[in-house]
Specification:
Blueprint lengths: L2 H4 L3 E8 L1 H5 L6 H14 L5 E7 L9 H11 L3 E6 L2 H4 L3 H13 L3 E4 L4 E2 L6 H30 L12 E3 L7 E3 L1 H15 L4 H10 L5 H8 L16 H9 L6 E4 L2 E5 L4 E4 L6 E4 L8 H12 L25
Parallel strand pairs: 1-2, 1-3, 3-4
Antiparallel strand pairs: 4-5, 6-7, 8-11, 9-10
């Protein structure tokens, strides 16, 4: 590309920072990257610079606002040069990075990785391929190590997630301990007992809403606990989905279940639900809100197919409690 063809075009300075980078205390902050790239551009006579930034985005993710905006400018023919701090900033996936480089080449864009001494104006650099492989290996190796740490913790009965179910709170002295949130526990017990009394989740949801019982997120907000869902239209709008999730949780009978999901792909961070034999189960590890008999009866009753009553009136008191032993 000659100087005439680059006149007036953008010198794109691209920065990316992920949460993993921050945790490793690497000197790759967005401000630091911008300073490095601006100094490099100024020293080497590049003009008409424009920053494209992705903050808090993993290197294995390639749908990024900053990257997408830069690619739009490239495909519009507005970019002469792309400069990054090092190749890991553009991404940590060999295939995807290769496709990006092909796009740069297709649109006659010069690509520079300042700290890696990579400049496509100097011709093909085979070392750049090895760097891309190493950058992806870093992510795969980190994922493997994290899985190993999580597995060791779960084998010892230690949680790997800070998420705490409705009805419990983190202990004041030790955040790893759970204590019963009495106000929420009353609601949890009511939900289980309502199921045993023959009510459906939609009926329970309507009753809680009518009585203006706060939904879990609203309850946490009011007591100053971490809120899982920050935005909701109605603080009393209980849903059948929320109630069903509560009813399925074995924690309420004191059973800790770890490893309910596993990350299948370190690139996409997709998870799958595990089978019971893959999980780590510890009975009596959590304060009991609902006794085991009540919990089991609620599960059995929810699986019972109930036909609409022929006449009005409350369901029989033994509905869901009496069953044929031959089909269990």
């Amino acid at each position: 590309m000659n100087k005439q063809s680059t006149r007036g075009k953008i010198t794109a300075l691209y920065e990316r920072l992920s949460k993993d980078d921050e945790q490793k205390n690497e000197s790759v902050s967005i401000a630091h990257q911008k300073q490095i790239l601006e100094d490099y551009a100024r020293k080497n006579g590049f003009q008409n610079i424009q920053h494209f930034t992705d903050d808090g985005v993993r290197g294995t993710t390639f749908k990024r606002p900053g990257l997408d905006a830069m690619l739009e400018e490239i495909k519009a023919g507005n970019v002469a040069t792309v400069i990054i701090k090092d190749q890991s900033r553009i991404g940590r996936d060999v295939v995807e990075v290769g496709l990006l480089k092909r796009t740069f080449d297709e649109y006659n864009v010069r690509f520079i990785a300042a700290n890696d001494n990579l400049d496509t104006a100097n011709g093909f650099d085979i070392m750049s391929i090895f760097r891309d492989v190493i950058n992806e290996w870093y992510v795969a190796d980190t994922s493997r190590k994290i899985k190993a740490v999580f597995k060791t913790r779960m084998e010892k009965g230690l949680r790997c997630s800070g998420s705490i179910p409705y009805g419990y709170l983190a202990g004041k002295e030790d955040k790893k301990d759970w204590v019963i949130d009495e106000e929420a526990a009353v609601v949890v017990r009511r939900i289980f007992h309502s199921i045993i009394d023959g009510k459906g989740v939609n009926d329970i949801a309507r009753a809680l809403c009518t009585e203006k019982i706060p939904i879990p997120s609203e309850h946490w907000r009011r007591i100053g606990a971490p809120v899982r869902i920050a935005k909701y239209a109605d603080p009393y709008a209980w849903s059948a989905t929320t109630l069903s999730a509560i009813l399925k949780r074995p924690e309420y009978m004191g059973r800790m279940v770890l490893g309910k999901t596993v990350c299948e792909n370190y690139k996409t961070k997709t998870h799958r639900k595990t089978m019971p034999e893959e999980q780590y189960i510890f009975d009596g590890a959590i304060p009991v809100i609902v006794d085991e008999e009540t919990w089991n009866n609620a599960q059995r009753l929810r699986k019972t197919v109930r036909r609409p009553p022929k006449r009005e009136g409350a369901p029989h008191r033994l509905t869901g409690l009496l069953y044929c032993a031959n089909i269990i």
